[in-house]
Design a protein that fits this description.
Catalytic activity: tRNA(Leu) + L-leucine + ATP = L-leucyl-tRNA(Leu) + AMP + diphosphate
Bound molecules: ligand ANZ, zinc ion
GO molecular function: aminoacyl-tRNA deacylase activity; ATP binding; leucine-tRNA ligase activity
Number of strands: 37
Helix content: 25-40%
Radius of gyration: 35 Å
Strand content: 15-25%
Keywords: Aminoacyl-tRNA synthetase, ATP-binding, Cytoplasm, Ligase, Nucleotide-binding, Protein biosynthesis
Shape: globular
Pfam families: Anticodon_1 (PF08264), tRNA-synt_1 (PF00133), tRNA-synt_1_2 (PF13603), tRNA-synt_1g (PF09334)
Main location: cytoplasm
């Protein structure tokens, strides 16, 4: 037979799948549903190799579940709003809409060339008015339900670009594009009240047992629940700016109260503001520390700084004990009460702080086994377990006991009419600010009326469509600059009013697309609840770990919000979550340090290891570290090139073969070529099997001889292992089993003295069965090659008509899986001396006899009589001499 020609076969089968619409899933299908979803792509312009991996993983599962008889939903769409479209408009003068839809068209063509079993009938882009119309409706539903609100927030404002910046866009206190010193501005923002669900989003993580533990942990930390105590410290009023009487703090370590050395408040705390009004030096200090912006990571790593306000607080257990109140750069207004007491011995930040300002420290928790008299803290705070010391009535208690004791005492103590201490649960999670001062996003459907304040856009006027005649000549929000768009009359009172010009965070768009896929044809509502409730949750979601926190948390919240507003009846959108690893590649550098693309380099393996030269000039190229593919280091490979050279099946097979799907895979040309050779090998093998399988009898033989039985056992063994492997997404393991079976099968076919004429009917029958099983085994991974092989089998009378993509997964014959021999370790007086292999059915006397005939056993016994033999079934034979 000729070589398999992927370039010819792949588009042919893709057309055929399309024409027969076999991947279109019907909502009224009575089979059990299975929903496979990969995170939908941003239409940047080109598919990258990471997409190929992501979608291949999902595709294998989708094809497999389809063969197993499920009504598989495997849709695709586009996460199409976002900043790059505006940047393209600025840099290349193309309209964001045109740029986006052009990219979608180009990428869709690329996706098709990978041979994915996608239901394109459900495709949409989040920038389609037909999609965001429903998002606007849900926003209004959430507004009515108290789940969307306006809130004043401090934001990073770039005075040159006239825009709000995300924390990540503030670098050393300056705007990432303009370089202008960023200001903190208080502005009204739209927020979603995700904090209402903080406890529920946390508790429900326990039930998500098909999610990676690390993702659940990341979400837990992000939600950040902590139990602690609110304590009202009295203030020494002589020292306060305006007679303030108390300072409320939140602590998770009330046990450490006797180790307190100072109090610290955020620069945004009202007390700090009041003090600064009377103290220019403090005001200057505050202005200074604000320059680093609001990004948590920056605050965490910045040097701890403080300014003594002169205010003094009174220790709650000792009226004569006064603590200085500092304004400090590591206390955030947004958490707890924006104020703390500092216990340097047991908190690293506090320790760094006191070491800088010479405030000293007193350890109050002593680790078990340490002598309290010699236990000192210098540079490293101790946050471990131990017993209380230097703490008066708490001494000798455990931390837990001390926390409880302090809470009890302060709860019981009243000042004014209120208790001094109050237990409180705090969450790190903040409400989700969704306002973006951006054009290319979903317009927030409200109107600001001078008389009626915020007025929702009436349902009949939805969608609020983005205008297309926008200009990007001025920095800032093009929607806001539009000459007419925002001017409108108030739907309530008819007065002149203004549209909201903020658009929604693009994370909103991706927080419900999986629900829209269940019925994207419904023009009247975001979902058809009966359908959505049947098709959801997504059974297997697959995507990058970079979305482990925000996207997944927002989607979990949004699903609950949709439930609260009647669009859906479930809480958790993703029953199974899988985070795939990255595709990484070696880097190549010229002597002058410039990076070179892999395609321009020739790598040879010689005696001294790998050596690289530039194809064009032959100059030496340095092979650098293996890194995530990136444009800056040029270590990318283009999926189009790979598919043009080797075909999609090779790319798919390679992606699945080398590493477990959740680990990084190293792109390697040598390995890709290996995958390409394997494709040809399978093709030859299937063609070779035809000649022998052809003569098989139509009916199944009543009995199988040893050769046939061995082949059948190998086929069903591989089938069993691949089946469980795919179910667990252990694709690399599946591929190894397919390779192994391929070897066994070729040995059978190549056995000498086996012309077709001499073949026994039972072996011919087993060969025919094996060839079908083999093709089905690799069909989820290499669907085009499988179709081609399936056709060859059928044309030669070995197979079934139709597409392998539509064939049922083969039935495993379980009785073929039983191992017929077992190997036991043989010990003499507990020491291993050898092994025996016996029939699984062998009885103890037979096993004993086999063990005693071993030379090593005779040698070890050294003529001594055997006193007894102990047999641990299927594992050990111990001879006691
Ligand atoms: C005294 C203390 C002693 C604390 C000690 C810790 C260790 P989590 O677990 O994250 O809730 N804290 C409270 N509000 C803060 C704010 N707005 N900005 C910065 N830090 C703040 O952390 C709670 C602890 O973080 C609190 O307990 C408080 O310091 C600090 F040995 O109080 B602790
Ligand atoms: Zn009005």
């Amino acid at each position: 037979s000729e070589r398999y020609n992927a370039r010819d076969a792949e588009p042919r089968w893709q057309r055929q799948w399309d024409e027969q619409a076999i991947f279109v899933s019907k909502n009224d299908d009575s089979r059990p549903k299975y929903y496979v979803l990969e995170m939908f792509p941003y239409p940047s312009g080109r598919i990258h190799i990471g997409h190929v991996r992501n979608y291949t993983l999902g595709d294998v599962l989708a094809r497999f579940m389809r063969a197993k008889g499920f009504n598989v939903l495997h849709p695709m769409g586009w996460d199409a709003f976002g900043l790059p479209a505006e940047n393209a408009a600025i840099e290349r003068k193309v309209a964001p809409k045109a740029w986006t839809y052009d990219n979608i068209a180009a990428m869709k063509k690329q996706l098709r060339s990978i041979g994915l079993s996608l239901d394109w009938s459900r495709e949409f882009a989040t920038c389609d008015p037909g999609y965001y119309k429903h998002q606007q409706k849900m926003f209004l539903d959430m507004l009515a339900a108290g789940l969307a609100e306006r809130e004043k927030r401090k934001l990073n404002w770039d005075p040159v670009d006239m825009t709000v910046l995300a924390n990540e866009q503030v670098i050393d206190g300056r705007g990432w594009r303009s370089g202008a010193v960023v200001e903190q501005r208080e502005m009204s923002q739209w927020v979603f009240k995700i904090t209402k669900y903080a406890q529920e989003l946390l508790s429900a993580l326990d039930g998500l047992d098909r999610w990676p533990d690390k993702v659940r942990l990341m979400q837990r930390n992000w939600i950040g629940r902590s139990e602690g105590l609110l304590i009202r410290f009295a203030l020494d009023q002589v020292t306060t700016p305006a007679g303030e009487s108390e300072l409320k703090i939140f602590t998770t370590r009330p046990d450490t109260l006797f180790g307190a050395k100072f109090m610290a408040i955020s620069s945004d705390h009202p007390l700090a503001q009041a003090a600064a009004a009377k103290n220019p030096e403090l005001a200057r200090f505050i202005a200074d520390i604000k320059k680093i912006g609001t990004a948590q990571e920056i605050i965490d790593t910045a040097e701890k700084q403080g300014f003594d306000t002169g205010i003094r607080a009174v220790h709650p257990f000792d009226p004569s004990w006064k603590l200085p109140v500092y304004v400090a750069n590591f206390v955030l207004m947004e958490y707890g009460t924006g104020a703390i007491f500092g216990c340097p011995a047991h908190d690293q930040r506090d320790l760094d702080f006191v070491n800088k300002y010479n405030l000293g420290n007193t350890p109050v928790v002593c680790p078990e086994g340490q002598d309290p008299k010699t236990f000192v803290i210098t540079d490293t705070a101790y946050d471990g377990d131990g017993r209380m010391i230097n703490s008066r009535f708490l001494d000798g208690m455990t931390i837990e006991q001390a926390k409880e004791e302090v809470a009890k005492r302060l709860e019981a103590e009243l000042r004014g009419n209120a208790p001094v201490g109050e237990r409180q649960v705090n969450f790190r999670l903040r409400d989700w600010g969704i306002s973006r001062q951006r054009y290319w996003g979903c317009p927030i459907p409200v109107i600001h009326c001078p008389k009626c304040d915020v007025v929702p856009v009436p349902d009949a006027d939805l969608p609020v469509v983005l205008p297309e005649d926008v200009s990007f000549d001025k920095p800032g929000n093009a929607l806001d600059h539009h000459p007419t768009w925002k001017h409108i009359t108030c739907p309530k009172c008819g007065a002149k009013a203004l549209r909201e010009t903020d658009t929604m965070d693009t994370f909103v768009d991706s927080s419900w697309y999986f629900a829209r896929f269940t019925d994207p044809w419904n023009e009247n509502a975001p979902t058809t609840p009966a359908v959505a409730n049947r098709m959801l949750p997504v059974d297997q979601y697959i995507g990058g770990v970079e979305h482990a926190i925000l996207h997944l948390l927002y989607s979990r919240f949004f699903t609950r919000a949709m439930k609260a507003t009647g669009h859906i009846a479930l809480d958790e959108p993703f029953a199974g979550m899988f985070t795939q690893g990255m595709v990484v590649h070696e880097t190549y550098q010229k002597a002058d340090g410039t990076w070179v693309q892999p395609a321009e380099v020739k790598v040879e393996v010689g005696g001294n290891g790998r050596r690289a030269t530039l194809l064009a000039t032959g100059e030496d190229i340095q092979i650098g570290a293996i890194e995530k593919m990136s444009k800056s280091k040029k270590n990318t490979v283009d999926p189009d090139d790979i598919i043009a050279t080797y075909g999609a099946d090779v790319a798919r097979w390679f992606m699945l073969s080398d590493s477990p799907p959740d680990r990084d895979v190293i792109w390697s040309d040598e390995r890709v070529q290996g995958a390409s050779r394997f494709v040809q090998r399978l093709w030859r093998l299937v063609n070779d099997s035809v000649e022998l399988g052809k003569i098989a009898p139509a009916t199944r033989p009543a009995a199988f001889g040893p050769d046939a039985a061995a082949l059948r056992k190998a086929a069903h063994g591989a089938l069993d292992k691949v089946t469980t492997g795919v179910e667990r997404l252990h694709f690399n393991v599946c591929l190894a089993h397919i390779r192994e079976f391929t070897n066994t099968f070729s040995e059978v076919l190549q056995r000498p003295g086996q012309p077709a004429a001499d073949l026994t009917p039972d072996l011919a029958w087993a060969i025919r069965e094996a060839s079908q099983i083999l093709v089905q085994l690799f069909s989820p991974m290499m669907p085009h090659l499988a179709e081609e092989c399936w056709q060859v089998l059928f044309q030669n009378g070995l197979g079934q008509p139709g597409l392998v993509s539509e064939a049922n997964w083969p039935q495993i014959e379980r009785d073929l899986l039983v191992e017929d021999s077992v190997t036991l370790v043989v010990q003499v007086n507990g020491k291993k001396r050898g092994e025996v292999t016996v029939a699984t059915a062998a009885q103890n006397p037979e096993i004993e006899a086999a063990a005693l005939t071993l030379d090593a056993v005779k040698l070890a016994l050294d003529g001594k009589p055997v006193r007894k033999v102990i047999i641990v079934p299927k594992r050990i034979v111990n001879v006691v001499g």
